Amino acid sequence: MKTIASIVGARPQFIKAAPVSRALTSHFNEVMIHTGQHYDYEMSDLFFKEMDMRQPDFNLGIGGGTHGAQTGMMLIELEKVISAVKPDCVLVYGDTNSTLAGALTAAKAGIPLAHVEAGLRSYNRAMPEEVNRVLTDHVSSWLFCPTDAAIKNLQKEGITKGVHQIGDVIYDALLRNLEIARAKSQILERMSLKKGEYALATVHRAGNTDDRTNMQSILDALGSLPTRVIFPVHPRTRKRIEEWKFAINENVSLIEPLGPLDILQLQENADCILTDSGGMQKEAYLLGARCITLRDETEWVETVSAGWNSLAGVDAKRIRALYGTWKPARERPLLYGDGHAAEKIAQILRDELN
Ligand code: UD1
Predict the structure, then answer these.
(1) Cα–Cα distance between 120 and 99 in angstroms, integer?
(2) Which of 87, 119, 121, 235 could link 3 by a cystine bridge, Cβ 3.0 to 4.6 Å?
């Protein structure tokens, strides 16, 4: 059996890796390497537990630090593991520093690389994620794209070989997790929330959290909404809120980061989702919740053209106005595949590597 080394490190990667890892089991020996980028219980272990994933084979314990130091340390440690494991393929997900470190390690070791969620672009090079995506795609042998737009983005950069549109593994994950979430999650009861009577907010992008004016503006917007706002706070954001001593309006409930089941329940039942997360924009669409994106651009352009996602940036007036007046479209065409993206990845890699 051939060996695939999967590299994960941050919260969204655990969600994407769960269905792929399951699909790989019958065809490959999978070695999972966790870089340690996310390390708090609520940001990491809770995901493995609730999604019933086996523990990673290695955890490198590299969390925190500047972008350069973090990526560099990952590169040093990943090289050691990869040269011991000698995989036939390295598999990376998304656009984090763990993705880039995994991609560079594979490229330097001369091991073919597969990238899940390839071809996404915001065309904003100030985002660390954009640089990570572009560089990873350019050293990948297999590029698994979720959307037509992603395929076109790669074509524009001259990448056509090894490109497959397979749908989005987030949809695979959602179909499985939603059923469990509906049966098991008690979050609505615990927080006394009713369907359609609250908004859900998340903020973690460096461009928002590390800029005092932007963060203040987002908090002003949330504080001015005529509804209760549930705000699970990412550790990066929590640090800033404490450091800058922002006042929080009483309609906004700051809570700890949530696991994958509780967050799905909150998303499915929210009147509106306000977020700068990529995964949440898609999940909002798939669950039929309107989404106001707290950024000026998005990689998930089809959610905007379908009329379910509205780009608001961080302007408090604009966010408030959209919240009050904007209604989503009636139709919600299938945009992210058929829920079998993970199996397609496993089949393609099996055909190519054997
Ligand atoms: C990273 C990804 C982003 C992804 C996001 C999901 C990069 C460049 N960014 O951003 O693409 O959407 O994950 O959440 O890779 N921290 C903790 N506890 C944790 C994790 C982080 O306290 O469990 C702290 C870190 O020490 C750091 C800060 O939060 O000070 C930010 O963490 P970082 O790893 O830079 O990434 P994210 O902001 O989560």
Answers:
(1) 13
(2) 87
Confidence of residue 354 (pLDDT cuts 50, 70, 90): confident
Q: Going by CA atoms, what residue is nearest to atom 16 of ligand 1?
A: 235
Q: Catalytic site residue 115?
A: no
* pTM of the entire predicted model: 0.97
Question: How confident is the model over 6-54, as pLDDT tens digits?
Answer: 999 999 999 999 999 999 999 999 999 999 999 999 999 999 999 999 9
Whether residue 260 has its Cβ less than 6 Å from ligand 1: no
For residue 338, give the DSSP letter. Answer: S
The active-site residue, picked from 27, 138, 164, 204, is 204
The sheet carrying 198-202 orders its strands as 252-255, 228-232, 198-202, 272-275, 290-293, 309-311
Which residue, by CA, sits nearest to atom 7 of ligand 1? 96
Ligand 1 near 38 CB (within 6 A): yes
Spell out the long-range contacts of 187-194 with Cβ–Cβ below 8 A and sequence spacing 24 or more: 187/258, 187/262, 187/265, 187/266, 188/265, 188/266, 188/269, 191/230, 191/253, 191/255, 193/228, 193/230, 193/266, 193/269, 194/269
Reported as a single tens digit per residue, the pLDDT across 307-333 is 999 999 999 999 999 999 999 999 999
Torsion over CA: 172, 178, 183, 187 (sign): positive
Question: What confidence tens digit (pLDDT) does each residue in 113-164 have?
Answer: 999 999 999 999 999 999 999 999 999 999 999 999 999 999 999 999 999 9
Residue 3 Cα to ligand 1 midpoint, Å, equals 29
Contacts of 184 (CB under 8 A, 6+ apart): 261
| Residues contacting 316, CB < 8 A, separation 6+ | 217, 218, 220, 221, 224
110: left (phi over 0), alpha (psi -120 to 50) or beta: left
Closest residue CA from atom 13 of ligand 1: 10
Residue 228 Cα to chain centre, angstroms: 25
